[in-house]
Design a protein that fits this description.
By secondary structure, this protein is of the alpha+beta class. It has five helices and eight strands, in the order E-H-E-E-H-E-H-E-E-E-H-E-H.
């Protein structure tokens, strides 16, 4: 069995159709095992025999749409890919906190962009691209009370087939995967 994390885009935990118990029920109904949620923003870990990740993403998205009316945004990563991302230590010496957000933006596309254009705001900076995890890694400075609109900028550059997680959430997801 393979261990995966589904990173769902656009999940609003206050929406009664998007609660963790309903999300988990869809995954269980698909025959996946060891289904668990991580925080309440659309992170589901599970195990299954499937190895075709794009087909798995489509299968999950179809079920989420049919059963809960969730229109789109399923990105799946293996435990191995996420573990390797954590082990690469892309934020050396930095700690995720209230004033400094460490974030990973995951791409559904078969490849992440090789280079990211400069974001014209000194409060956010790209520190790297992880090709295996298909993720852009960035640091967002929230210390001055103004949050840069980095995620909206990424969406404008690359479309809606992306989703962003804090580094702390990525760590929690991998821990939950075992």
């Amino acid at each position: 069995m393979n261990s995966y994390a589904a990173l769902l885009r656009g999940i609003g935990p206050s929406n009664p159709q998007m609660t963790n118990d309903k999300l988990r029920a869809v995954f269980t109904g698909l025959g996946f095992t060891d289904v668990a949620s991580v925080v309440s923003s659309g992170n589901i870990v599970f195990r299954c025999a499937d190895t075709d990740v794009p087909a798995l993403e489509d299968h999950i998205q179809e079920a989420l749409n049919a059963e809960l009316g969730i229109p789109g945004g399923t990105i799946v990563r293996s435990r191995e890919d996420l573990r390797a991302l954590l082990d690469s230590d892309p934020f050396p010496g930095l700690t995720h906190g209230r004033s400094t957000y460490l974030i990973a933006t995951f791409f559904k596309a078969p490849e992440a962009p090789a280079e990211i254009p400069d974001f014209d705001d000194p409060l956010a900076r790209v520190v790297g691209v992880d090709r295996t995890a298909r993720a852009v890694l960035a640091v967002v400075d929230n210390s001055v009370g103004k949050t840069p609109d980095f995620m909206a900028w990424l969406e404008k550059q690359y479309g809606k087939d992306i989703t962003t997680r804090t580094w702390l959430t990525v760590q929690r997801v991998v821990k939950k995967m075992g």
